[in-house]
Amino acid sequence: MSKAFTPTAAKPGVITANDLREGHSLWMCDEGWTRDPAQATLFEDEAIADLALLKAIGQSDLVVGPYLIEAKRGPNGPEPTHFREAFRQRGPSNYFHGIQADKQAEASHV
Amino acid sequence: MFDVRPVETDYVRHRAAQFRAQVARRLDGSLTEDEFRPLRLMNGVYLQLHAYMLRIAIPYGTISPDQMRMLAHLAATYDKGYGHWTTRQNIQFNWPKLVDIPDMLDLLASVGMHAIQTSGNTIRNTTTDAFAGAAADEYLDPRPYAELIRSWSTDHAEFQFMPRKFKIAITGAQHDRALVAAHDIGLRVIEQDGRTGFQVWVGGGLGRTPMLGKVIRDFLPEEDLLPYLEAIIATYNLSGRRDNKYKARIKITVAERGLDVFKAETEEEFTRRRRDFLGADREALAVFRDRFAAPSFRNAPVEGYEAERQANPAFRSWTDTNLRAHKVDGYASVIVTFKAHGETPGDASAEQMRLLADLAERYGHADLRISHDQNVVLPHVHKSDLPALYLALRGAGLATANAGLTSDIIACPGMDYCALATARSIPIAQEIAAHFRDQGLEDEIGKLNIRISGCINACGHHHLGHIGILGLDRAGVENYQITLGGDGYDIPSIGERAGAGFPYDQVVPAIDRLLRAYLEVRQDASERFIDAYRRLGAAPFKAALYPAAEAAHA
After folding, report:
1. Single pTM value for the model
2. Cα A46 to Cα B241: distance, rounded to the nearest angstrom
């Protein structure tokens, strides 16, 4: 994890945090915060990302510990580049819990 | 000055109420996260990778059936139906919501449990032998002393903001099952010239700088326990480094300043402190001794047990591996392993917890222990009850006959849960256990202690495993270093790194080569892996781990 990560057009990034009340992982999106990492806003400019991170830090009534992390453009939205974030976006490997389970539950409601 | 709290439950309830108010102030914006973090950590609440985590203290691993039922209730109501036994005899819940934790703490307080000092730079849970009060090789049950230490160290005003966390372990047995040499302070209850006292160890610990402790006092009279502990910790509290988190544990203080200097300062402090202890500690110890009095053991025939062993090979196999010698004839201590092949080491479902509570009441004098190797022990079971106990355990998937074998692996939560982790450890443990079951080699390999940590902080105690596995992040890829020759029991020793690390998918093949090499070189089945390693040195095992390197040298 690199909290000092600086996004550029070549190495874009997303902002992630945890939900204050419930603890689950969240990603910053254009409308606020989302539980779907593919909906996250991709930052390609250091100054814009820094402003957004300041905004996230200012939302400490909603989220805990926001940080910038490297991401790459994927066909369905931003994707993680490091395995830590990949696990965080999926959930634990020993049980079908966390985001992977939330996504399945959501899909079955559609 | 040490004072015994007459109504301790009131204190625990008070702390729970205090935390409820702190959570409310965090949620309404009165407290920032920077202000709130130390408050939540004082109550065992961490923020992990996917969620909050609540670590609950199980003092010296001893838990009553009613407390176990409460943990089951919390698992079913506020978590995802399970909890995780830790390597420090505590339990962690991986999925609580912050808004629910005040309710969880209230419920815990109703059965005298809490999460106080399960985090932070304080004196943590005092750990001990899971067979305390039962083991055949025990001189004295160490738990009255452990309770005295718990009572004294809980909310000890002087020791709430130390340079770093502080861990004490105590054993009363000849065979050290409490890892005394690997703790900040280790205590061995001993007898000298007809008096009971302690051999006191200091400065042991694992983490990024693993060190075995040193003896600071060969014999400390029993009545001096608390003043001497207080002297050691006060000395450390002043002289321990606060400039560098990685050099802040007492092991570094002792190593940098020298045991002689540290001991001289401790002894001087002890002389001063001793005067302040006016006897309340000794009175408390007498009360705690009564509380830990042995149950009324029964004298009954054990023929049924022997007959069932002859008749039922699966039962016989389980009794061969999962029983330990008891100090009373006709009794045994039972290890219920939470290491079924392919399952998560140390995870217990709410149903399993409830069953254990019932079985402890029916067959085990209502006594349950959490062991540091992430299993549960029923310390006192009459052998005539073992066939029925076995059947009940088997029905719940809790009768795996693997205590002390290859699949009885210690593993930290790793990167599946922990925010500090650099790699996963749970799936490595699952795959090793399943692999050796599928190969049918577990019985042949015999006694073996594998320990896995998902980062250098070493919660999985990998340095003390006969085979240790340490998961690291090497240039953005999971990579696993293997250490050999560690031992947390007979001859405490820190394992040595075998060589370059392995990528995730090469760990099981590497361990397979290593153990097949062991089977080739051992003298006979009675020579354990660790014995063969000590006899032969690392060379044949390194050759098995790195066959290509060996070929290149040839």
Report:
1. 0.95
2. 38
* CA nearest to B46 within chain A: A23
Q: B121-133 pLDDT, tens per residue?
A: 999 999 999 999 9
Q: What is the dihedral of CA B138, B401, B86, B347, to 10 degrees?
A: -150
CA-to-CA dists, residue B142 to A31, B21, B134, B292, B373, angstroms: 59, 37, 11, 10, 19
Quick one: CA dihedral B228, B231, B234, B240, positive or negative?
Answer: negative
Q: How many residues belong to chain A? A: 110
Q: Which residues of B touch A98 (CB under 8 A)?
A: 50-51
As a whole number of angstroms, the distance between CA B186 and CA B165 comes to 15
> Which tokens belong to A28?
């910053």
CA atoms within 13 A on the CB side of B2: 27
CA distance B65 to B75: 15
Do B418 and B49 contact (CB within 8 A), yes or no? yes
Looking at the structure, do residues B81 and B164 belong to the same domain, yes or no? no
Mean pLDDT of A1-6: 64
Residue B118 lies in a domain: no
Distance between CA atoms of residues B193 and A61, nearest Å: 63
Confidence of residue B4 (pLDDT cuts 50, 70, 90): very low
Q: What is each CA distance from B114 to B105, B127, B181, B231, B375, in whole angstroms?
A: 6, 16, 28, 27, 21
Question: What is the average pLDDT score of chain B?
Answer: 95
B348 and B233 in one domain? no
Partner B contacted by A84 (CB < 8 A): yes
- Report DSSP letters for B510-548, one per residue: HHHHHHHHHHHH-SSTTS-HHHHHHHH-SHHHHHHH-HH
Residue found by looking up tokens 């790195």 in the block: B546
Instruction: Count Cβ–Cβ pairs < 8 Å, chain A vs chain B.
Output: 74
Of chain B, the percentage scoring pLDDT greater than 90 comes to: 95
For every residue of B443-496, which 3-state class applies, written as one string? Answer: HHHCCCCEEEECCCCCCCCHHHCCEEEEEEEECCEEEEEEEECCECCCCCECCE
What confidence score (pLDDT) does residue A110 get?
53
Radius of gyration of chain A (CA): 14
Range of the domain at B342: 303-395
The CATH number of the domain holding residue B250 is: 3.30.413.10
- Angstroms from A99 CA to nearest CA on chain B: 9
| Closest Cβ–Cβ partner in A22, A65, A92 for B417 | A92
Whole-complex ipTM? 0.94
Give CA–CA dist B426/B258, Å, rounded: 38
Domain assignment of residue B100, yes or no: yes
